[in-house]
Amino acid sequence: MTKSALxxxxxxxxxxxxxxxxxxxxxxxxxxTQSVADQxxxxxxxxxxxxxxxxxxxxxxxxxxLPAVNVGVILSGGQAPxxxxxxxxxxxxxxAANKDSRLYGFILGPGGxxxxxxxxxxxxxxxxxxxxxxxxxxxxxxxxxxxxEQYDKGLEILxxxxxxxxxxxxxxxxxxxxxxxxxxxxxxxxxVQVIGCPKTIDGDLKNEVIETxxxxxxxxxxxxxxxGNIERDCNSARKYWHFIKxxxxxxxxxxxxxxxxxxxxxxxxxxxxxxKNQSLDDVVNYIAxxxxxxxxxxxxxxxxxxxxxxxxxxxxxxNLIAELNDFLAHNEAEFKQIDKTExxxxxxxxxxxxxxxxxxxxPEGVARQLSLDRDPHGNVQVSLIETEKLLAxxxxxxxxxxxxxxxxxxxxxxxxxxxGYEGRCAAPSNYDADYCYSLGYTASCLxxxxxxxxxxxxxxxxxxxxxxxxxxxxxxxxxxMERRHGEMKPVIQKALVKLDGAPFKTFAANRENWAVNxxxxxxxxIQYFGPTEVCDQTTKTxxxxxxx
Length: 548
What we know:
Largest sheet: 9 strands, mixed
Radius of gyration: 25 Å
Number of strands: 15
Number of helices: 22
Distance between the termini: 42 Å
Oligomer: single chain
């Protein structure tokens, strides 16, 4: 296989790890835990894995003689930079404890466990993938592990391969599934430990003890590089407004981090829109007013960052989508009989007055996406809505109205972009390479300590890596009850952007200046070799949260 010069150089990179992981370790119990909410319900659902203590690993006086152990690993959900280093960390950790330990990868996610599709991961395979992006070593998938039949089918292959521990690398839903699986295997005495690792570029799996989810750092650096390039182009040509949609359906962490790194003229934060009960019209007017102000200063150009999930956070849009979902679910046959040219008018005539007016105000393309593109559950596929085009078009229309009224004299031309998949499989930054390897090695220590229902945790990561704190936290600690598909279920609580948190406050304190003036920052590409302040820096979000 042909390799680039960077691939060859990165293969030789040795991830930096916490000092505690460099020799023999011992698990030290911290305080006992409880779930973030709904304690009684969560305790009832997880009698065997609830209330366990936080674990910290410290150097041990002498290495323990540990028996060989077979371990399984699953990559679950969307890709995130650094997954291969988590697997490398698990491999090196179990081998350091006993060279006869073995690691098996289940192919294409949790479905591989249920379908008994696996491969043994040997040293030559692992070495081929160290410090590389992507999940292509074993692939990933979105099969949900939620039925007893699946757990039992999985247990068959785990018994067959004599696997005593399973590591599930995934986001909040995947780790919720891991916790349910850990509880079930403990309840039936299956003799299989289950450990989770926090993965998602969206950055919404974090709390006091999980500082960040892996991949967020790299993805934001990739997006910020390209946003910086667009800002440079924008400031060179001085004739376009660039509307840039960024991944992050459930939370705006990526948009906020990229704004802190690149200082665009506008960045919309979904959580703020919802908190202020803003309408789509409010968002359009805000962007249009920034465009108009810059035009008065002779600057007919700029950049706007938009989180992918914005539409779902606008209360009025949320109400419209809910009514549309309900109406089309009950009138699907009739709707299909209506001529395509008449469908928009038909829907407008059937909705409540408020939602009818909002639907009528939407550009035709977006209205069509809302009414036609449904998922298997009959819901709008929000991720398919081209919010960047919607806002660019609506801002253009608003400015045209203002021009006719003599309120605006500038020129407006837009370009639209969506940055998503470009960031999910990038070669991990030094931070993610180090953090992921440490998470994997910590997972192996949790296995060696006999733990189950824990998530691997590495903290204090704004400090140099040897000062990082490795340990584990019970997954039940992060859970609450939420309505899913019409019934209450235990799930890991999503971490949204905190409007009283340091990252948002820093953004809010600067955005008026960034809006009017051209204060662009150009981060450039990820640096792997060179001074530590360039190569090993963490996200602005983490620096501000940790006040470093």
